[in-house]
Amino acid sequence: MRMYEIIEKKRDGLELNLDEIEFFITEYCNNNVPDYQAAALLMAIFLRGMNERETADLTNVMANSGDRINLSSIPGIKVDKHSTGGVGDKTTLILAPIVAACGIPVAKMSGRGLGHTGGTIDKLESIPGFKTSLSTDQFIDNVKSIGISIAGQTGNLAPADKKIYALRDVTATVNNISLIASSIMSKKLASGADRIVLDVKTGSGAFMKTFKDSVKLAKAMVKIGHNTGRKTVAVVTDMDIPLGCAVGNSLEIIEAIDTLKNNGPLDLRDVSFELAARMLELSGIGNLEECRKKVADAVLSGRALSKFAELIENQGGNKEVISNYALFPQPVYKMSYICEKPGYIHSMKTDKIGMASLVLGAGRETKDSKIDYSAGIMLNKKTGDRVETGDCIAVLYTNREEALSQAVSLLNEAIVISEEPHDKKPLILAYIDSEGNIKN
């Protein structure tokens, strides 16, 4: 088999078979295929596309390129949740302890943030002492003992995806549905869950900017799940506005704790609770309405908050942060972002708000950037809210005094104020069931 012929075949719009996909992935990972040939094939895929079978095969082969976590020793059905990323998206921190408190094991491997989107692992590491680097045995043992563990992805989980994504990133071949879907789902398959709930974000702060493209991606990933024996459903949620009010690591942990105390922002609570209910439904413990009631009860009874405290303590963190927020890292500088004219917040360019948080120190521009856990933004007003001159729209937190002016400039670009009120959009825009049917 020759790489030249595989490139030629896809260039001409023909279907690649499993052997050809396996040859490409295996030989490229073994450094027997040069970058220029791999880039040529990726561009051919980008332009010509892949069908459902090709996409499923690509996903499975990438999932098999490294370690596959075996969760079979954990009793019960293991349901994973994946978000395509956004600003203020701390839903995992809320839904994981809720689902675990309802008796469904949560074995969650999460990632770090890069660019304007935050990462669950960075947020958890803002808790003093919390350990996210666990061996596979530690990870599984934690789930067996307390029903929940959240850890960083292992270094050898779907390594083919890491290598191919790095090449896609520099060859303008990122935005292809098959390549995006296979990248996400290869890591989910390798993580070992029986069933998967996808939170596909759409809007200015999301990877997919339009509802149409978000639905296409959601359907593609659901189909991959179906074709690889993993029951998968998807929820399309709005990311034209940050989720919740907190953007930044320790700020988001505090907001998640508040939500588990049933005091968090309504938008964050609604999305997190709905995703938790979908996970419970997929685990088979009841219909959706019954699962929504179980979610509400887990929070109102305090069981979900207790489970989060148990998770923190079990992974070396100081669980006292739940009652004493002063134990989190504290910033040196705090600045109010003041409204300069009356009106209504018409829109928020969410990616710009994420970038403002990044320059304050809450995010990373490269993999080696150091995170400031205390940095970030707390929004007092959001899209649709009435504002008056002198109102504090947001508070900025940082240890970099020189970053404040750049962050303010980004917020000036992000926040649009108009004279007329602006209707708020629904947060949950669509649901795609395991058969790929869309329900609004």
Keywords, please?
Aldehyde Oxidoreductase, domain 3, alpha+beta, globular, four-stranded antiparallel β-sheet, five-stranded mixed β-sheet, Transferase, Pyrimidine Nucleoside Phosphorylase, Chain A, domain 3, 3 domains, 16 helices, 440 residues, 14 strands, Pyrimidine Nucleoside Phosphorylase, Chain A, domain 2
Write the layout of secondary structure elements.
Elements: H1 3-11, H2 18-29, H3 35-48, H4 52-63, E1 79-83, H5 91-101, E2 106-110, H6 120-124, H7 136-146, E3 148-152, H8 159-170, H9 177-190, E4 195-202, H10 211-227, E5 231-238, E6 246-247, H11 249-260, H12 266-283, H13 288-300, H14 303-314, E7 333-338, E8 343-348, H15 350-362, E9 376-379, E10 386-387, E11 392-398, H16 404-414, E12 415-418, E13 428-432, E14 438-439
Parallel strand pairs: 1-4, 2-3, 4-5
Antiparallel strand pairs: 5-13, 6-9, 7-11, 8-10, 8-12, 9-11, 13-14
Number of strands: 14
Report the principal-axis shape: globular
Output the structural class.
Answer: alpha+beta
CATH superfamily of the largest domain: Nucleoside phosphorylase/phosphoribosyltransferase catalytic domain
The CATH architecture assignment of the largest domain turns out to be 3-Layer(aba) Sandwich
- Poorly predicted tracts of residues: none
Taken in chain order, the helices and strands follow as HHHHEHEHHEHHEHEEHHHHEEHEEEHEEE
Protein name: Pyrimidine-nucleoside phosphorylase
Catalytic activity: thymidine + phosphate = 2-deoxy-alpha-D-ribose 1-phosphate + thymine; uridine + phosphate = alpha-D-ribose 1-phosphate + uracil; 2'-deoxyuridine + phosphate = 2-deoxy-alpha-D-ribose 1-phosphate + uracil
EC number: 2.4.2.2
Keywords: Glycosyltransferase, Transferase
